[in-house]
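Structure request: Glucuronyl hydrolase, Bacteroides stercoris.
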Amino acid sequence: MKKISLSCFIAVVALCVFSGCSPKQPENDYTWLKQGIETAALQLKFTVAEIGDSIRLPRSIWTGYDTDFLCHQLDKKQLTDKDSARLKPIHDNLGSRRYCFSIYDWTSGFFPGNLWLAYQLTGDESLRESAVKFTNHLYPLREYKGTHDIGFMMNCSYGNANRLSPADSVRSALIQTADNLCGRFNPEIGCIRSWNFGKWNFPVIIDNMMNLDLLFYATRLTGDDKYKELALTHARTTMKNHFRDDYSSYHVVSYNNDGTVEKKCTHQGKSDASSWARGQAWGLYGYTSCYRESKDVQFLRQAENIASLIMRRVKTEDAVPLWDYDAPDTPQTPRDASAAAITASALIELSTLVEDGQAYMEYAGKLLKSLSSDGYLAKPGTNRGFILMHSTGSLPNGSEIDTPLNYADYYYLEALLRYMQVKEIDYKHI
Ligand code: GLY
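Returned structure:
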């Protein structure tokens, strides 16, 4: 036995001496990471140049839908009148860049956020200048109260601005937004209201877990625990009502005014009972943040259980999930690169919060390598300037199917940053 080990060792050393490498090289080959960062910087600069002075906010690429395809994905013989009424009209500009309809679009903060993250990754001053310009454009949002998404909109833009280029006006805009988000909290129900549209009495979506980070940040900025306490109450109520026994989650839970549940259903998943891929990723990310901030172990268990569910239920070789974990397992079924990017980012953070996070880090590494491969990473100058291909926004609504999404790019960049921080990789030395 000893003899075999020794001869193996000699063979490895000999191989390394002759090939001029260190034994660890394959594991430490970060060419994929470098390619991801370089592509991101090129794509973002290309997009900024194409937009010119008009300041529009890129969101995705216009896609259409085919009714037979939708029926197959949703396991329905035909679409009901209700389904059909929800379908977004097919845009006559298929294939062109889709912009946010205004700064009040829920995704408006991601493009400025992408510029900030790419600046942080590369140190490229021109990216910082563009980030400032696009972030300033969102300034009126500090007064907006119409959706829970103000957390995404302001934290990804102004939150990153304050981290990388702090200023009093930026800090105040974040605190004002956090106050407005708290204004959507109903103490009887114990949740922040997500949407103002629809027929629900008080809809709360699993995505809302992502907006808690703005409240945690507001507590850090002000020293006032009220933001954090409110966020944790929301997280506890959501833990009680959004999750099934296997830790998969409903997309929408609507409440009656007395705090009882009115309805559990989906808006963007395959069915009310299915596990919508991005929803599971939002939940994982949200409960990881809650544990980071509170050190309450029930949030850690929740995050770990969601992580297990995701890793257990994935059907693809490269781990980039189908748009819904219950979607038909066929080559035609669209994937959701945004869910993969959010999951990767969350798992990297989770790996730092547990005693042995290796399995989470390895899974995140696998996701990031997949996303940085030719299958998902755009070639510079293509993909209308977006970084990643193959995400799915809202398939049951016929919207943004198998297309780039600005938030897939955002969480991909955030995950690259986190990965480099944990592994202590310096971009300049790759
Ligand atoms: N928060 C909306 C979505 O994930 O599509």
